[in-house]
Amino acid sequence: MRVYNFSPGPSALPLPVLEKAAAEMTDANGTGQSVMEMSHRSKDFRSVIEKTEALLRELMEIPSNYKVLFLQGGASLQFSMIPLNLAAGSVPGEGKRALYVETGIWAKKAAEEAAKFAGVETGASSKDRAYAYIPAAPAAGPDDAYYHITLNNTIVGTKWAEIPETGSVPLVADISSCILSEPLDVSKFGLLYAGAQKNLGPAGTTVVIIREDLMGRAPPWTPALLRYDVHAAEASMYNTPPCYGIYVIGLVLQWLKDKGGTAAAARRNREKADMLYSYLDNSRFFRSPVDKPFRSLMNIPFIPAENDAEKRAALEKRFAAEAAAQGLVNLAGHRLVGGMRASIYNAMPLEGVRALAGFMKRFEETV
Ligand SMILES: *Cc1c(COP(=O)(O)O)cnc(C)c1O
Fold first, then answer.
1. To test ligand 1's pocket by mutation, which of 100, 151, 154, 337 has the most ligand atoms within 8 angstroms of CB?
2. For the segment 54-90, what is each residue's pLDDT rounded down to a tens digit?
3. CATH fold group of domain 4-10+261-364
4. Which end of the chain is more exposed for a tag (fewer CB within 10 A), N or C?
């Protein structure tokens, strides 16, 4: 039996995608091989990666002056590659200024890593209230090499309601947990990046979308594998790319396209999120810790209204266990923040959210 999987990542994939991957497991497209077994230099694999890139370009309406790269190392390696490529100095330890907005744990990690290569300025932070909101966008300075935001904050469940205006300073955004959840104007950004395992496919691939003029800025001491221009010059095949992951991403993108693309996904995602938020806002027992204007469509934390920490932890444990018994799994909050969290990415159907809301209502009546 398939469960409704609310995991924040790696997360649920659409069933038709898994079934197609299974059907092609031993013989992909009449080649007599699995995509896992193909040479990445073969024309068969080239058609796989080209199709995945073309679908991503189509679905996100990526302008032609942007490169699409399929890399490894997760979103976390981008925390290092971005400052290395955009702000590092001619000798290690020296670097230009970069502006970071601290809206959660991933944003903070990105800034901490960047400080090894750049002069990081935290322009604004919402740490004072446990990241329950997005602060007003700080102004970009003339010396900033780039301006970094985390568009959707997976752990705390916030998202930027508006994209900051940064003038000529390139805007860089971590979109790991919201890529393709709704339309996004790529032309407002210099660089976008996303680990695949939330809304795109299996773990192991990171998608980077970079404006061409931002390449070639890495200092000479940068390792080749960490340079965007090296990957771009070789069409993501400087070394062996994460072939199978790229193939599954292609299947997910085709599925999304068949369902009407990002505009239709946004409508479905809003309906799902509204269902949970309206339940939470009317519940006497559960509540959302996030300020209304900044609530994520993808990651919805909720906490029981119980002030005693020990009792609350026990309730949360019971909730997770009883939910799992009903086929609603992976609802525990992030280990650093506790509470509960439902991640409802593109692959989560409305019925799954309805089942969760129904379960929460029944649970609430028993306590
Ligand atoms: C999951 C996540 C990360 C970390 O991704 P890895 O691929 O594990 O490195 C970074 N940023 C955001 C917003 C995330 O959701």
1. 154
2. 999 999 999 999 999 999 999 999 999 999 999 999 9
3. Aspartate Aminotransferase, domain 1 (3.90.1150)
4. N
